[in-house]
Design a protein that fits this description.
The structure is a single chain. This protein has 533 residues and is α/β, with parallel strands linked by helices. It has two domains: 247 residues, Glycosidases (TIM Barrel), CATH 3.20.20.80; 215 residues, no CATH class. Helices cover 54% and strands 8% of the residues. An eight-stranded parallel beta barrel has the order 1-2-3-4-5-6-7-8, surrounded by five helices. It is elongated, with a radius of gyration of 28 Å. It starts with a helix and ends with a helix.
Length: 533
């Protein structure tokens, strides 16, 4: 019984720490106004009908039935929807909207293709004449100047051409800086439509300051165009994805920003269109996790993220995540105990403490890692990559616990893939070493991504920490034999060191996701640097 006292005590401490961490992580946010309130409908919200495999490509043709399903649901929470084009089946939206009692801000998508522009304009003009009680405005072009699709004079000419053909108000939409840069557009539009997205600002705005930023920018634009009404054509916050400096995408931050902006609009009496109704999962391929996570409704299930009366939490399934983390911690302790039973000597307190640290870290981060994988994976390759890392990270504390009890150091790469006479004879050590190789290779891929193409990359801080801590503990307590430092491990260590320094400096000290990921890279570098053959 004496031999069980230490591991049992540490296991209970570990489980308590996991429970406390998840209670804190799942703590709901208090909001002055619910993001979705059936008793206080939204003024307007952007709508895109694309689901699952559908994209905004020429091959997609959205059915009327699909649009009707969405608009019937949206009519319960909003008075108006904004759409951005007239093709791909979107020309059916005004007719369906009229049936369910929604108003429409109809967009005209402009690009460098003049023939497609003409078709967009022709359809929009026809719809505006056909549904004068439903279409309340036309938006001629969306961020055309920002993306350099045409010049300001050409755009102004197109806007005036459309105005001459319809009776509804006509506007143009772009980020607020471009309205201030091209003030000559004022005379061409009936009102000014600005996009204010605090997350995407050149200097990202944290969620707690987002509503104040929206108000300050709106006032600045209003002072520049004193004769025009200002419509905030897009504002919102992503619920998933990477941090940009201090701007953190999360469910609670999305709910908070939307709640505060809506309350501000009510108090200050200005019009606002939220971006957006549904998550657009197809955007993950081009804009990363953030690009597909601006919706108030889930892309696949079409269910609201924030049902009325339900507390808003970043981890709505936290009880399941906590329980699965506890199970993983128990498994790690069980592996350590079973290994210790087969040894002629009793492991010291340091080994059991190392097992407890690895198990606790894994128990807290397992649920976070799974949730990140679900939201951040898009396409077969992405699912395979993050799924493989999840498996390796989950196995790491279990194999690590066994290694800590046996006194085994992490095997060097040459002991696994080198000459046959130098390979480790232990099957358990070989499998553990294979996990190590998988972790290092995937971590290297992510590290190089942050150096060369970081904009849409998510930070794998949770999975890397789960994976790295047990190996670092093994290296610290089970010292490798004195021998030469292998070249392969030294090269990987150098990559992680350089990537950590570069990423940390480029992402900024306010980005805790980046700093945490860099810390994991440094831990991997330290572990690799201690390898010997």
């Amino acid at each position: 019984m004496a031999s069980l006292r230490i591991p049992l005590s540490l296991l209970l401490i570990s489980l308590g720490a996991i429970a406390a961490a998840w209670w804190w992580l799942a703590m709901p946010v208090s909001l002055a106004r619910a993001p979705i309130d059936p008793n206080a409908k939204l003024q307007c919200i952007s709508y895109s009908p694309f689901r699952n495999h559908q994209t905004s490509s020429a091959e997609t043709q959205v059915s009327r039935e699909q649009i009707a399903e969405d608009l019937t649901e949206l009519a319960r929470i909003t008075e108006c929807i904004r759409i951005y084009a007239t093709d791909l089946g979107l020309d059916q939206v005004p007719d369906v909207a009229a049936e369910v009692g929604l108003k429409v801000i109809q967009g005209i998508w402009l690009s460098k293709d003049r023939q497609k522009n003409a078709a967009q304009i022709s359809t929009a003009v026809r719809l505006a004449r056909q549904y004068p009680q439903t279409i309340i405005a036309l938006v001629v072009g969306n961020e055309v100047l920002l993306h350099r699709e045409m010049s300001a004079p050409d755009l102004a000419a197109l806007i005036r051409s459309v105005k001459a053909q319809v009776a509804v108000p006509v506007t143009y939409s772009d980020v607020w800086e471009y309205w201030l840069r091209y003030r000559e557009l004022e005379s061409a539009v009936d009102f000014v439509t600005v996009h204010i997205l605090p997350y995407w600002e050149n200097v990202p705005i944290p969620a707690e300051s987002a509503a104040a930023h929206v108000d300050a920018v709106r006032r600045r634009v209003a002072s520049a165009f004193p004769g025009k009404e200002i419509l905030i054509g897009e504002t919102g916050w992503p619920s998933e994805g990477r941090m940009r400096e201090s701007a953190l995408p999360s469910r609670t931050n999305q709910a908070r920003v939307i709640s505060e902006v809506l309350e501000l609009a009510r108090r200050e009496h200005f019009r606002v269109n939220l971006f957006e109704a549904y998550d657009e999962s197809w955007k993950h391929e081009f804009e990363g996790t953030v690009g597909g996570s601006w919706g108030l409704f889930d892309s696949a299930t079409r269910m609201p993220k924030y049902p009325p009366g339900v507390p808003v939490s970043n981890f709505p399934s936290w009880k399941l995540q906590m329980a699965s983390g506890m199970a993983l911690a128990i498994l790690a302790f069980a592996a350590a105990w079973l290994t210790s039973r087969r040894k002629p000597w009793q492991p010291g307190l340091a080994a059991w403490v190392a097992v407890a640290v690895s198990a606790t870290m894994a128990g807290i981060l397992f649920g976070v890692t799974v949730q990140k994988m679900v939201h951040e994976s898009y396409g077969t390759g992405n699912w395979l990559l993050w799924g493989t890392l999840l498996v390796a990270a989950t196995a790491s504390p279990v194999f690590g616990a066994s290694a800590l009890m046996s006194g085994r150091a992490p095997p060097a790469f040459l002991e696994l893939v080198g000459p046959e006479d130098g390979r480790t004879p232990s099957l358990l050590a070989a499998v553990h070493g294979l996990l190590w190789i998988v972790i290092v290779v995937i971590a290297t891929q992510t590290a190089l991504g942050f150096v060369f193409d970081p904009r849409e990359k998510d930070f794998p801080y949770a999975a890397l920490t789960m994976a790295a801590v047990p190996f670092a503990a093994m290296t610290l307590l089970n010292r490798p034999r004195k021998a030469s430092r292998p070249v392969a491990e030294s090269l990987f260590a150098a990559v992680f060191l350089i990537a950590a320094v570069y990423t940390g400096l480029s992402e900024g000290l306010e980005n805790w996701q980046s700093l945490w990921t860099c810390a994991a890279y440094l831990l991997l570098a330290l572990t690799l640097s201690r390898a010997r053959v």
